[in-house]
Design brief:
The protein has 236 residues and is α/β, with parallel strands linked by helices. The chain has a single domain, classed as 4-Layer Sandwich (Purple Acid Phosphatase, chain A, domain 2), CATH 3.60.21. It is built from nine helices and nine strands. Strands 3-4-5-7-6 form a five-stranded mixed sheet, with no helix packed on it. α3 packs across α4. The longest helix has 16 residues. The mean pLDDT is 95.
Length: 236
Amino acid sequence: MGDIHGRADLLEVLLDRIAADAARHPEDRHRILVFLGDYIDRGASSRGVVERLLQDPLPGVEPDFQTVRLLGNHEEALLDFLDERSDGMDWLGYGGLETLLSYGVPLRGLPDTPQRAAELRAALAAAVPANHLAFYRACALHHTVGDYVFVHAGVRPGVALERQHPADLLWIRDEFLRHRGTSLPGKVVVHGHTICDMPQDLGHRVNIDTGAFVSGRLTCLVLRGMRRQFMSTLDG
């Protein structure tokens, strides 16, 4: 599933569609649900999204789905602020404000001094439940299933997966998007991070970030055998 960005309402719709699709395929033997990161920021319900993903996202569906949660650059930005690796200014500018509001943290002005940044950091740390913080810290950087590699943003072309820098997995754009042909030999890279109007299947890579927070289209990629199918909240 692509970038949710605080749209808990769309998450529920798409999970219902995934459950319905699974019910039509009782022959499935092994099911994995991979979330590509960017659960928070921009939309109005970051806290609600995380709360939902802390539960079994598809209760009652048999056989069960294994769930994999990847880290997005927006979760990294939140952690960087909480861990005093940033002053939070950049993060607030690209969506952090909405996350603060979802956790009930009042913002009386931008943290334009070290003191204000410290005060806001302390307020956020007090507001984020311990299990939410553990959720963010436990997210993986990548996941591999067969011929598919799942990452948030992409990979640096020509660099083996085990040697990829975390910053590239979370933030890369141009070098990855403009690369012709496979970036990881023998693998198809499934990613989000860069918004496209409709999901893109380019053979060697698949982009499923359809800008849910503004478009209302939250998208997932369904893989069965050799088949690739897209499913979104705006289907039908």
